[in-house]
Design brief:
The complex is a heterodimer of chains A (252) and B (193). Chain A has one domain. Chain A is globular, with a radius of gyration of 22 Å. Chain A has 252 residues and is mainly alpha-helical. Chain B is mostly helical and 193 residues long. Classes of the chains: A mainly alpha (252), B mainly alpha (193).
């Protein structure tokens, strides 16, 4: 039991809360699903309630909602132009979901939804799927021009096209692994340093004195993780915008 | 397409394990694999992510974003409206200042005109009075001159007579006898000339 407490991996374990099996798949309502619900409810409630008064002169909380809205809106407009605004709801909900999931994951005993590769990969697949579907729907086979940059000599074309295809295919991987690895590594490091504090302070007075350093590290890391939580949500949204730009304007 | 391939990969282990650890058997597996790579949890996570994120997306798209966009649009409209109104008011103020200045200039020129008129009138009056006085003086001068001339002529006549008398007396005294009165008068006249 004591070893379990210091186990930095323990926090990522998934327990079923309401067991559920459909067609041979285990689709139980787990702690991961619970925190997805918490994330969504929290984000929705915040956005809904802070804007309920529709004040002309916004209060502090309404300003936060408006800032998030305009931040993502400007990001998308800069990256993908005016046409890109049709994807505004998608990018905004992705940004808010990742941001809130990252942030509530920082609270002790809370599960971090984005520390699971399948979650980030599903979100990344949603983005790339949108890019592919919209790209082909809008440009037909002209979308394949994405892989053929302008002004490349013909003899280099096979090589360049191969590189472009590889870079396109690796996008969902890099998009999902970046977020997943950041959250996972951050939480493991936090847990390891916090574990030092617990096990050192069990050794008596000297141990308590020695545990000050890891405690300070844990505090500093929490601040860093807060930054990373924002940063990774931002990076996810920015990359989404850039990939959507490819769907809108495939010829470079 | 990535999702489906992931599904395909984990279909085999999920079904195989699903039978053995349905519900209670999960903890036994927890210590086996690294939790984020435990494919047995993938279907559940994908399903619940799709449900929660889908609802979140719909809620934001239908409710939150129109509201936020509306708030920001209304504010921008209000700001442009206020700016327009401020510009309009400024224009009105400028027009009022211009009108005031024009009126002031008009009043000034009118005042100058009135002053000029008064000045001219006074000058003309003074001129007529001066002319009248001058004419009066001229007349009086003329009268005086004629009087002086007549007095002078009388005096001259007297002088002639006195000279004649004196000459006749001198002639009487020198020559004796009566001198010719006509001759003396002629002589006096020739001298007096």
């Amino acid at each position: 039991m004591a070893a379990d407490k210091v186990d930095p991996i323990h926090q990522f374990q998934i327990h079923p809360i309401i067991p559920l099996h459909i067609g041979g798949y285990d689709v139980s309502f787990t702690n991961s699903a619970l925190f997805m619900v918490v994330t969504v409810v929290l984000a929705s409630a915040f956005l809904y309630m802070t804007t309920a008064s529709r004040s002309l002169v916004p209060g502090r909380l309404q300003s936060v909602s408006e800032m998030a809205y305009e931040f993502v809106g400007n990001m998308l407009r800069d990256a993908a132009g005016k046409q890109g605004m049709r994807f505004f709801p998608l990018v905004f909900s992705l940004f808010m979901f990742v941001l809130v999931a990252n942030l509530i994951g920082l609270i002790p005993y809370f599960f971090t939804v984005t520390s699971h590769i399948i979650v980030t990969f599903t979100l990344a697949a949603l983005v790339i799927g949108t890019v592919i579907v919209y790209g082909f729907a809008k440009h037909g086979f002209g979308f394949l021009k994405l892989f053929v940059p302008h002004g490349v000599p013909v003899y280099l074309l096979p090589l360049v096209v191969a590189i472009e295809v590889i870079s396109f295919v690796s996008r969902p991987v890099s998009l999902s692994v970046r977020l997943f690895a950041n959250m996972l590594a951050g939480h493991i490091t936090l847990k390891v340093f916090s574990g030092f504090v617990v096990s050192l302070s069990a050794l008596g007075a000297v141990g308590v004195a020695g545990s000050i350093l890891p405690l300070a590290m844990a505090v500093a890391l929490t601040a860093l993780e807060l930054l990373v939580a924002f940063l990774q949500a931002y990076v996810f949204a920015v990359l989404t915008c850039m990939y959507l730009n490819d769907a809108l304007h495939p010829s470079h | 397409m990535f999702v489906t391939s992931a599904f395909a990969q984990e279909t085999a282990p999920a079904t195989a394990e699903g039978a053995t650890h349905a519900g209670t058997a999960v903890p036994a597996e927890e210590h086996g694999t690294f939790p984020p790579f435990n494919a047995a949890t993938f279907p559940s996570q994908i399903l619940w992510l799709v449900i929660t994120f889908g609802l979140f997306y719909l809620f934001l798209k239908r409710v939150v974003m129109p509201r936020l966009g509306g708030i920001i649009d209304v504010r921008n409209d209000r700001i442009t409206q206020d700016l327009d109104q401020a510009a309009k008011l400024k224009g009105e103020a400028d027009a009022a200042v211009a009108a005031y200045e024009q009126e002031l200039a008009e009043a000034k020129s009118k005042a100058i005109a009135i002053g000029q008129q008064a000045n001219d009138g006074a000058k003309a009056e003074a001129e007529t009075i001066r002319k009248k006085i001058e004419a009066d003086l001229e007349q009086k001068l003329g009268e005086a001159e004629t009087r002086i001339a007549s007095i002078k002529a009388n005096a001259m006549k007297e002088v002639g007579n006195i000279a004649e008398d004196t000459a006749s007396a001198i002639v009487e005294a020198l020559v004796g006898g009566k001198a010719d009165k006509a001759a003396i008068s002629a002589a006096v006249k020739s001298v007096a000339r």
